[in-house]
Structure to design on (728 residues):
């Protein structure tokens, strides 16, 4: 294993050329040590952003262009020669946590992020390090991140780089040096807000939302002045508890359409209601609109959140506002009265499709949100045009003519669990979708991960830990683990779907070994690129889905790939790494194999590339139970419930970890009640992200969890056999 990289002290470095040759990490297998010395770093203007499709040698924003089609006009790499792709260079991101970043490439420099919101500037041709910026996040905020301490990328504009930090800050950095120009706290840091999404820049404003709806926050998206960080406008997605004006851009929207969709009682008033805008924010130049996707309700269970059962705008909606003022224009709610974590934060793509009168072009927004339906919406008005299920679903019997889901009554779960698909990880999650206008296909990284939803009989509002009102213990009976494993795993599926939004149906589908496969890149060379959870990065024929090339990247390949060209040579790049929501929450139960600890990387390919992705020496974990089993039946049952409620989402169901965070079965802390309590109650490991649970767990409950974890350690032979039985 490589020694941890030391971060550069930028102030001490006078010249960029001196930095790339320093001993502090740097590239592996770079083919050259040439240094880029562009006239300006990130010299990105509005003009360049508006015409980004005409400069495909660069990748100027998260989705490539304002339309966010992730479709590049580069054609050097084509369906005919993609088989000759090989590794040009790799770069270590110095983290074993989740990596979800799409690299920005501009003026010869690549800007890429990794876990804990660390930013790297690299020579895009060689991978040589130019600078590293670590915002020094207090590791204790990690417990607020529902889905690992990930970051999906940065925005660049007029020599600056904009970064959303996991603790809720937005920072503007000097793109040349990485030095902080301004830093602004954009959230109430006493609440469990996080930022994992990539900022966008439109006309001198940097746009960012936040996350935290699993734990209890009130969502919003804001526009800040790129030069000062001053707030230009803010749009809340949920009314304030008194339904009074906030003095924000959203006030009129709540007065006109939002307030009446919320009841007068319910946990939303304390929990904040949710509706976080944690991923997709796009700019529609044709209508001068900012269009964003809104997340789930908080708590999930509407019975607790708002017993009135109303629609709860703008949860699970696509919302359009005026780009200059944030004033409301229209909304389309994909899941009225969300009850299942059915976010509409997934990739939003703008396109002109022949859906107007007489087949004329019509400007549309497309999305495949978690709820299983693919939507085509008018970009000017929000009018529903088309929609159809892109994965199997059993929560509705279809859509009305206005696009409203027709629910089955059982889906409004209560004490009786309802085994539903999609589950809370969705038919599609954050993995970026792409659209190829040449063949008229949207490429969806789709999946089937069913979940039994049941009302949590012990629900109580608390604002610091997972808090959904749905019972995670309902689906983890402590009996016959191997049968339960086989049942759970048999329902897990993943596929790449080429969706024809005009015909409203799939044109072709590639089945993968399991869910949680990567984001998609489309190119005018007729190639679709996608990484997979099994560590492969693959290329498919854009028109047929035929697999053209595959390369083992030796780690998770979930991020959105990108492409760029330097000196006339085209490159394809992807960030790799384990972690993120699926591997944490589904744990070793659903991992494609025992996930080895690995270092996240940037892996960049070119035709004829001949470099090798380094193997990692993995220290073996001592898999022996550290103590004798203890506890009576009641204590073990209590331990199961408390584990499921408080520990599952990070350490995995059945206490089977996926390898990203510690597998508690083998932890030496489990061997003594004092050591265990020291961590769980006293917060002895807070510095690495394990905060105290003393505010939600009693000492008896903490000890019951230890009894359950020790029991699972002794039970591990059967569990591991069940897992390896099913491993492809
Ligand atoms: Ca959520």
């Amino acid at each position: 294993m490589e020694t941890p990289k030391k971060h550069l002290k930028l102030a001490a470095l006078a010249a960029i050329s001196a930095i790339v040759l320093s001993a502090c990490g740097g590239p592996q297998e770079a083919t050259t040590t040439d240094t880029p010395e562009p006239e300006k770093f990130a010299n990105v203007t509005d003009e360049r952003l508006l015409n980004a499709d005409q400069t495909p040698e660069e990748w100027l924003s998260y989705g490539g262009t304002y339309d966010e089609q992730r479709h590049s006009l580069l054609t050097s790499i084509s369906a005919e020669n993609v088989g000759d792709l090989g590794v040009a260079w790799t770069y270590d991101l110095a983290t074993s946590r989740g990596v979800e970043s799409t690299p920005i490439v501009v003026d010869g420099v690549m800007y890429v992020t990794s876990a804990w919101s660390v930013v790297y500037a690299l020579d895009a041709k060689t991978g040589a390090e130019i600078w590293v910026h670590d915002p020094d996040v207090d590791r204790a905020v990690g417990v607020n991140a529902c889905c690992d301490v990930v970051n999906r990328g940065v925005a660049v504009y007029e020599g600056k780089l904009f970064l959303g930090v996991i603790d809720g800050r937005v920072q503007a950095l000097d793109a040349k040096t990485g030095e902080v120009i301004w830093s602004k706290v954009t959230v109430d840091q006493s609440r469990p807000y996080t930022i994992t999404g990539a900022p966008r820049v439109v006309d001198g404003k940097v746009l960012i939302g936040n996350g935290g709806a699993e734990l209890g926050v009130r969502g919003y998206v804001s526009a800040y002045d790129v030069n000062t960080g001053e707030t230009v406008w803010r749009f809340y997605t949920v009314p304030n508890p008194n339904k009074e004006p906030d003095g924000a851009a959203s006030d009129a929207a709540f007065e006109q359409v939002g307030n009446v969709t919320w009841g007068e009682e319910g946990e939303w008033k304390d929990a904040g209601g949710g509706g976080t805008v944690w991923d997709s924010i796009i700019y529609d130049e044709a209508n001068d609109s900012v269009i964003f996707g809104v997340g789930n309700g908080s708590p999930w269970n509407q019975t607790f959140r708002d017993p009135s059962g109303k629609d709860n705008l703008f949860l699970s909606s696509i919302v359009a506002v005026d780009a200059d003022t944030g004033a409301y224009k229209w909304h389309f709610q994909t899941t009225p009265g969300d009850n299942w974590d059915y976010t509409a934060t997934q990739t939003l793509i703008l396109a002109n499709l022949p859906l107007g009168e007489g087949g004329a072009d019509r400007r549309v927004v497309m999305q495949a949100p978690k709820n299983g339906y693919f939507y085509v919406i008018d970009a000017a008005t929000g009018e529903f045009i088309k929609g159809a299920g892109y994965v199997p679903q059993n929560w509705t019997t279809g859509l009305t003519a206005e696009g409203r889901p027709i629910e089955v009554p059982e889906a409004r779960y209560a004490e009786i669990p309802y085994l539903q698909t999609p589950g809370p990880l969705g038919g599609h999650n954050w993995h970026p979708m792409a659209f190829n206008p040449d063949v008229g296909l949207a490429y969806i990284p789709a999946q089937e991960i069913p979940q039994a939803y049941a009302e949590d009989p012990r629900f109580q509002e608390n604002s610091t830990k997972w808090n959904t009102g749905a019972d995670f213990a309902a689906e983890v009976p402590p009996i016959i683990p191997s049968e339960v494993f086989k049942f759970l795993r048999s329902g897990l599926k993943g596929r790449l779907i080429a969706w024809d939004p005009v015909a409203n149906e799939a044109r072709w589908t590639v089945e993968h070994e399991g869910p949680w496969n990567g984001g998609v890149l489309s190119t005018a060379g007729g190639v679709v690129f996608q990484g997979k959870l099994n560590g492969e990065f693959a290329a498919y024929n854009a028109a047929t889905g035929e697999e053209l090339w595959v390369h083992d990247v030796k780690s998770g390949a979930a991020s959105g790939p990108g492409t760029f060209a330097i000196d006339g040579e085209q490159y394809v790049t992807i960030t790799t790494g384990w972690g993120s929501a699926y591997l944490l929450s589904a744990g070793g139960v659903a991992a494609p194999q025992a996930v080895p600890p690995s270092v996240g990387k940037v892996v960049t390919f070119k035709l004829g590339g001949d470099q090798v992705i380094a193997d990692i020496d993995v220290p073996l974990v001592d898999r022996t139970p550290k103590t004798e089993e203890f506890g009576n039946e009641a204590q073990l049952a209590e331990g199961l419930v408390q584990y499921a409620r408080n520990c599952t989402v990070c350490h995995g169901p059945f206490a089977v970890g996926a390898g990203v965070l510690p597998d508690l079965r083998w932890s030496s802390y489990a061997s003594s009640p004092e050591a265990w309590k020291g961590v769980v109650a006293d917060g002895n490991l807070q510095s690495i992200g394990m905060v105290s649970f003393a505010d939600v767990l009693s000492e008896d409950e903490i000890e019951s969890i230890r009894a359950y974890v020790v029991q699972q350690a002794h039970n591990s032979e059967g569990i591991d056999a069940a897992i390896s039985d099913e491993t492809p």
Observations:
- The radius of gyration is 24 Å.
- The chain has a mean pLDDT of 88.
